[in-house]
Amino acid sequence: MTKTKKKYYTVWKGHNTGVFESWDDCKAQIKDFKGSQYKSFASFEAAKTAYKAGPKDFIGKSKKFKSELTKEQLKKIGQPNLNSICVDAAVSGNPGKLEYRGVDTRTKKQIFIQGPFEEGTNNIGEFLAIVHGLALLKQKASNKIIYTDSITAISWVKKKNCNTKLKRTEKNKPLFDLVNRALKWLMENNYSTTIVKWETKAWGEIPADFGRK
């Protein structure tokens, strides 16, 4: 099972301010706080620097992603195919409340969103998001491809097996019911849609990213 990408959260305005190491801790500071200001960062140092600098250069501004790969590596990978949709999932906790969604890669417009579901995992969300996208594209007879940043989810879809270690409970029963529906769809349907790994190191976060994983 792949690990969820670690992020750090800077809170400039909230019940408490500073750098927090989980989305749950960050959410506790901004919940019911009018005018809260916060942002996620990929490293503790970046979050700490942003906290000291203040929100002016970070809030409401989308900083252009700059890849650390070499020109040769970037050339080999190429650019993303914009005739596509991107899917992603977000979980608050492990397991925790799960959401997943799909967006149009070119326009960034949200196409579908599901959740929150209780006691889910990121891998299950990524799996469900891909199958949801497959069913939608087949229904529309679309030739678009699907991007995901989860190798695990791609493997599950190809094997038609949600190989999760998550225990079933009364709370996550609706989620597992959805997993069973997804597996049933995979067993009963053929599809021509290509599923491709999103190259995060070359292109930045996948457009469907919730920004709080």
TrEMBL record:
Known EC number: 3.1.26.4
InterPro entries xrefs: Ribosomal_bL9/RNase_H1_N, RNase_H1_N, RNase_H1_N_sf, RNase_H_bac, RNaseH-like_sf, RNaseH_domain, RNaseH_sf
Coarse class of the protein's main subcellular location: cytoplasm
Catalytic activity: Endonucleolytic cleavage to 5'-phosphomonoester
Domain RNase H type-1 intervals: 79-213
Annotated PROSITE patterns: RNASE_H_1 (PS50879)
Keywords: Cytoplasm, Endonuclease, Hydrolase, Magnesium, Metal-binding, Nuclease
Pfam family, one: Cauli_VI
The organism's place on the tree of life at top rank: Bacteria
Compartments (UniProt record): Cytoplasm
Reported function: Endonuclease that specifically degrades the RNA of RNA-DNA hybrids.
Family classification: Belongs to the RNase H family.
Protein name (database record): Ribonuclease H
Organism name: Winogradskyella alexanderae
